[in-house]
Structure formats: C-alpha cells, structure tokens
Amino acid sequence: MTIEINNEETDAIGVRFTQVSQHIEQLTRQYQRAAGDVKLLAVSKTKPLSSIRAAYALGQKAFGENYVQEAVDKYHALSDLTDIEWHFIGPIQSNKSRAIAETMDWVHSVDREKIARRLSEQRGASLPPLNVCIQVNISGEESKSGIPLAELDAMVALVTSLPNLSLRGLMAIPAPQENHAAQCAVYAPLTQAFLALSQSHTSVDTLSIGMSGDLAAAIESGSTLVRVGTAIFGERAHPVNAS
Ligand SMILES: *Cc1c(COP(=O)(O)O)cnc(C)c1O
Prior knowledge:
This protein is an alpha/beta fold and 243 residues long. It has one domain: Alanine racemase (TIM Barrel), CATH 3.20.20. It has nine helices and eight strands. α1 packs across α2 and α4 packs across α5. Pyridoxal-5'-phosphate is lined by residues 43, 45, 66, 89, 173, 211-212, 227-231. This is Pyridoxal phosphate homeostasis protein. GO terms for molecular function: pyridoxal phosphate binding. It holds the Pfam family Ala_racemase_N.
C-alpha cells in the first residue's frame, strides 16, 4: 500500500514538474530572455525525502529549504545524490549559522552583517566558498527580512571582503501586488541594482525573484532563478512557522 501511495505521489510530481518547467520555458521565450537563463529552484520545505528523490529523478538538482534543522536533516539523508545542490532561503538566527555554513551550497537570505561574518568564519576550509545572495526588502515596512536598497553598497562591500563567501546576487520576496504591472513596478529598482552589480562584480549572476504567483513578472524583470514549491510538490500540509 505504501508503495502505491509513493507511486501516485511520484506521478503527480512528474506531471506538475513538467508543467512548471514548460511554463518557465514559455515565459523565457515570451520575454525574450536567452534560453536557459531562468533556472528553477525547487522549494521542498516540509516535503518528504521521497518527493525530493522524485524531482531529482526527473533531472532537478537545486532544492530550496527554509528551516535549518529540516535542511540539515535532508542534506544528510540524501547524501547519496552526489550533485544535488542545497539552497537555504529562510530567515537565519545567528545560533543556526554554523549548521548552514557547514552544509548548504547557497544562502539567499543574507541580510545582516553579523550573519555574513559568521557564515564566512564557519564555512569549513575544505569546502568551496558559500554562494550568497543578499536579500533586499523592496516592499517597505511590510517585510521584516531584507536590507533596504540604500544599504546595498555597504553590504556588498562587506560580503565581498569575506574570504569564504562568494557574492552571487540578490534575492527578494515582495509583498503580493494586484497585477502583473504592479509586480513589475515593484521589481524595477531591484532589477536596476542587479544589473549595476553584475557589471561591477564578475561573480554576480543571480537574481533570485519569482514565486508561483508572480513568475511572469519576475521573468520579465530579469529573474535568473525562480523559487517554486507548491506548484511542483503540492500544497503544504501544515502552516509554516519560522524556525
Ligand atoms: C516557500 C517559499 C517559496 C515557494 O513558495 P510556494 O508558494 O510553495 O511556491 C519561495 N521562496 C521562499 C523564500 C519561500 O519561503
């Protein structure tokens, strides 16, 4: 019986994964982005190992997690998937930074000097530099995560001065907007900042924007990495709380 349920789950993930991938390809063409420019981060938070294995079997390599303990547990449990890539995309408490620094390939949610310093200090010497996106708050007071764009230069200077971090780009989670035009308008200053940053820093190639609800606007606005969970793995069973 368990096997049957797993097969059904795997089939459902297969169908949804194909739909999401095709949708991203279609939007990439529609907004005249180069083929392959927009990558997919499969957000697997709260989802079981079997779901991650199912997506991996379909060719997905990059997975995003929000909760430190869950991310670390999955990292260990799936260590047989050699080229899997783990992205941490959630809020970071300083007492959890070591676990992130020792296991993750990417962190999208760097928005404090203290966290950046700890991640660099705690990154094992045998590991490649930790790929980092600076999280920017582009919708004002509503969000408590992310730095204002006015503080970006200072944070860039800090991150690029730290030996075990590699600055890869910017990430944002804007407040929900009414329509496509409003979504693009919120992204516009971030897109400009990203283009400037990628010209001044050769390591910068990642604009981590776009979720299920605003994929089109994000891809039109220059996203290079969309973060999609529910549309691939189905609804999450439990309401999510920050770890
Ligand atoms: C959960 C989450 C996503 C994916 O959201 P879905 O609604 O499941 O597609 C993307 N980005 C971040 C930062 C998230 O926490």
